[in-house]
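User: Could you write out the 3D structure of this protein bound to iron/sulfur cluster? I've included everything you need below.
Assistant: Certainly. Input first, then the structure.
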Amino acid sequence: MDVKKTAHPVEELTDDPVVIDQVKRLIHIAPLEKLFDYCRARSLWPFGFGLACCAIEGLMAANMPRFDLARFGFEVMRGSPRQADVMLVCGTVTWKAAPFVVRLYEQISEPKWVIAMGSCAISGGPFVDSYHVVPGVDKLIPVDAYIPGCPPRPEAVIEGWLMIKNKILDPKVVNKIRG
Ligand code: SF4
């Protein structure tokens, strides 16, 4: 079979062998999507979805100067799903709120990720047997990272964010749930 060798992009711009050699040695061409992922992983914009105490106890503490989530580029909390790429579900999800959770998730444009923060968002938490509580937000929407705790420590919140970062950089990463 005749295999056609693909030309390096610089060979379409010049036939000067010195320039071609220099460019091939100095410039590495990466897929554009990899470059986007590199930038995305360091500037995620969260859509804060505080439903109960987790938002106050864990999330706000992680955003304050002591833990300083801004170090990682994740601090630009948005009030609109149209300006966000990560949905943070912090707190108890009730069946009454479920349609709004799903609608807001659908309004976030792709690519998007979801963090279930706290045992209520993961599994219903202390209210799991209540008739009105959804036993985990992953029954409604896909979840990419789980942050356990009631409420989670700010360090755990940061670790959850880093899971999303690693997942963007390497989609093969399997997230761990720590008890
Ligand atoms: S997991 Fe605990 S702290 Fe978080 S919303 Fe539920 S009851 Fe509140």
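The first strand starts at residue 46 and ends at 50.
User: Perfect, thank you.
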